[in-house]
Design a protein that fits this description.
Length: 265
């Protein structure tokens, strides 16, 4: 257990050595959030309701979704894994008692602690700034369920980052794959707009994928459009997908590491 804590602490300290990067992410996230606020403000100028969402509900959806997006973003974790493959750094883990996959997952926890500290301060500022436009109805029960969904969302994103990063076993550059995957994940998670704005068939397809449970469902649950029972069902689906993604990771690793060793890495 001590070795895991050491990795978490080291990554936490390392993140704070790049304060300019943290500031850049804060500014970038604010611009992204503010642009959504402006778009929906304009959209509601002449209507009181859009697809069943009042202005307050839509603003709450955007803000809560931002919390989930910010706290589950990997910040280029895919490229770090790809770099370890290409530089041979991964070789150091082939003879160590800790597997590389466990190292990556533990390291990601150290990163998210920094993000959590930043989001608390930034989130408080947003709540003060947009409080007149938000729905405030968070009970202890909701907070616990949202907390569990946040944990599930975080690890779903981490597992996807690992899968994309491990593509480096067969590809020199994964940046293009990462960029495409990022757009697809955000689209099907409801990060750009609520999925329910589309037709029922699209929503049904989206709910079969893990992405909706990292953004759309948690935000829907907060504003009261999803029941506690449905939210708990969403957590169950998160767990199911985590199992599926873990199996995929293990299969990719098993095949990829053979090729990695065969080329003398």
């Amino acid at each position: 257990m001590k070795k895991y804590w050491t990795i978490i602490k080291t990554e936490f300290q390392r993140q704070f050595t790049y304060r300019v990067n943290i500031l850049a992410y804060v500014v970038g996230n604010f611009i992204g959030l503010f642009s959504q606020v402006i778009v929906w403000y304009i959209a509601y100028q002449y209507v009181d309701n859009i697809r069943g969402y009042s202005y307050q509900e839509m603003m709450s959806y955007v803000i809560i979704g931002w919390f989930f997006l910010f706290l589950t973003t990997n910040y280029g974790f895919e490229t770090i894994i790809a770099r370890d493959v290409h530089t041979g750094a991964m070789s150091n883990f082939l003879t160590k008692p800790m597997s590389y996959l466990r190292y990556v997952i533990t390291k990601s926890i150290g990163r998210v602690i920094v993000a959590f500290m930043v989001v608390i301060l930034q989130g408080m500022a947003y709540i003060v700034l947009f409080k007149q436009f938000l729905v405030f109805s968070l009970s202890m029960e909701q907070a616990i369920v949202l907390g569990l969904m946040l944990i599930g969302s975080f690890f779903i994103k981490v597992f996807f980052a690992i899968i994309i990063g491990l593509i480096a076993f067969w590809s020199i550059d994964v940046k293009g794959v990462f960029a495409l995957a990022n757009v697809v994940i955000r689209f099907f998670s409801g990060a750009y707009f609520p999925l329910s704005i589309f037709s029922g068939m699209f929503v049904n397809i989206s709910l079969l994928l893990p992405f909706a449970y990292t953004h759309f469902i948690p935000a829907q649950f907060y504003i009261g459009k999803v029941s506690t029972l449905s939210a708990l069902g969403g957590i169950g689906i998160q767990i199911l997908w985590l199992g599926i993604l873990y199996i995929i990771i293990k299969l990719i690793w098993k095949v990829g590491i053979k090729q990695y060793e065969s080329v003398g890495a």
